[in-house]
């Protein structure tokens, strides 16, 4: 099918729903560990509590990709039904999650939320490849990154923002502060509204051969065998990108799960107080706990706000790429390599950061994040069968979730322990992992994936 080039507004409309998806991801990435610590989690236990996120992605994304490839509705299209279902479930879970009374209920809600976000997110990746000609795909994925950057920046700063309007950061032992609850409620609303905007402003192409599509859909469901077959037939470029993805996502999972305990302790000098260390029956001791807990909650707001900077810098990175790729080709491999190495240096610099300079570390991390959200998908979409774009995007997610599962099941604790016991060492591990990811780009050799070739170029 010859696809027409889309205008800026059309690409913006089809990508806008990612704003809501990123609100959900940024709120969990920035504040889920804080919720776990508030509910009594020990620092060493935090990674395993995060295992829900990658496990649900491993299961849900290939299924949703496979199903959306086989879906067509004249009214709702192929990918949009999944946007809606995921948005509704995610919004409900975001609203309820910070009210969790116990640690394990909060962990359970993380399972539900991540599954719901994945229902919406995977079809969004496939939609870009569905609608855009190959020459515009870098542009399309970078546009998504631009919107994701906005979402990360705003959502990560929400608890700090609402606290500036007088919403309290203080709370009793084992209770999530009201500032976090309000922030999650705002995130739920943004998630729903932004997805609805994309659904009602974007049309999809019907299957190129409707008769063949209906025959294929009518066949006996061979989901497992089809997935296994497609995994076995992965293009070599996809496998090599998988190595880059492994180290990239090990690094970012380490950040999401460990940045709050590491930075509140090392940079802000306000670690989460352990209730068992205080005699809560003693008024003086109880007040000392409350003071320490409020200081932790306030510094957690500042950590979240600092993390939002990586969303802002990824947005600037994406904007520059949008302007450049609208008219010119880029070397995707080189851009990705340099961006990942800069991000790795950003993580390492946290060891020497102060509360005033921490934002500069996240600026560098934003370059890596902006590239991770665009360049691998642009390279992948130029090397797979367009008819199987959804299922291959879902399978590609394995290279995202497997490193996170390994990290959650002891990988972070083991590698960090080789350096030392301090929580900040997890950020050093993240930095080294991201630099390795950058260097692994030397494995990518497919010229069409590296720089899309057109007749006019």
TrEMBL record:
Keywords: Membrane, Transmembrane, Transmembrane helix, Transport. The chain crosses the membrane at residues 12-36, 48-68, 80-97, 103-121, 141-162, 182-200, 241-259, 307-325, 334-354, 360-379, 391-412, 424-444. InterPro entries: MFS, MFS_trans_sf. The keyword DNA damage does not apply. It is found in: Membrane. It is a multi-pass membrane protein. It comes from the Bacteria. Its main location: membrane. This is MFS transporter. It comes from Polaribacter ponticola.
């Amino acid at each position: 099918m010859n696809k027409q080039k889309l205008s800026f507004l059309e690409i913006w409309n089809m990508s806008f729903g990612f704003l809501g998806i990123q609100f959900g991801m940024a709120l969990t990435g920035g504040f889920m560990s804080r919720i776990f610590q508030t509910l009594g989690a020990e620092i060493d236990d935090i990674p395993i509590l995060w295992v829900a996120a990658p496990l649900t992605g491993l299961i849900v994304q290939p299924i949703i990709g496979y199903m959306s490839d086989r879906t067509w509705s004249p009214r709702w299209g192929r990918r949009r039904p999944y946007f809606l279902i995921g948005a509704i479930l995610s919004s409900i879970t975001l609203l309820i999650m910070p009210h969790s009374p116990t640690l394990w209920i909060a962990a359970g809600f993380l399972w539900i939320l991540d599954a719901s976000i994945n229902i919406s997110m995977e079809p969004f990746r496939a939609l870009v490849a569905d609608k855009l000609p190959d020459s515009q795909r870098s542009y399309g994925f970078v546009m998504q990154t631009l919107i994701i950057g906005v979402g990360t920046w705003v959502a990560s700063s929400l608890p700090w923002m609402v606290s500036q309007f007088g919403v309290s950061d203080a709370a009793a032992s084992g209770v999530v502060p009201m500032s976090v609850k309000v922030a999650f409620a705002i995130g739920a609303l943004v998630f729903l509204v932004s997805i609805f905007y994309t659904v009602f402003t974007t049309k999809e192409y019907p299957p190129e051969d409707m008769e063949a599509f209906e025959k294929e859909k009518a066949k006996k469901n061979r989901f497992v065998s089809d997935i296994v077959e497609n995994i076995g037939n992965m293009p070599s470029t996809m496998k090599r990108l998988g190595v880059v993805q492994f180290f990239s996502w090990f690094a970012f999972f380490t950040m999401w799960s460990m940045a709050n305990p590491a930075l509140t302790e090392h940079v802000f000098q306000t670690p989460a107080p352990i209730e068992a260390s205080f005699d809560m029956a003693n008024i003086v001791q109880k007040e000392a706990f409350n003071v320490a807990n409020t200081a932790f909650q306030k510094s957690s707001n500042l950590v979240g706000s600092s993390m939002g900077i990586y969303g802002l810098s990824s947005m600037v990175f994406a904007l520059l790429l949008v302007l450049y790729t609208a008219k010119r080709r880029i070397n995707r491999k080189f851009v990705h390599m340099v961006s990942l190495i800069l991000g790795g240096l950003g993580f390492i610099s946290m060891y020497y950061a102060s509360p005033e300079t921490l934002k500069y570390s996240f600026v560098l991390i934003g370059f890596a994040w902006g590239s991770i959200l665009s360049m691998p998908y642009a390279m992948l979409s130029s090397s797979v069968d367009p008819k199987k774009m959804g299922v291959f995007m879902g399978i590609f997610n394995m290279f995202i979730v497997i490193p996170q599962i390994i990290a959650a099941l002891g990988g972070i604790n083991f590698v960090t322990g080789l350096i030392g016991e301090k929580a900040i060492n997890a950020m050093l591990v993240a930095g080294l992992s991201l630099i390795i990811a950058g260097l692994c780009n030397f494995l990518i050799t497919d010229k069409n994936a590296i720089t899309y070739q057109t007749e006019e170029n």
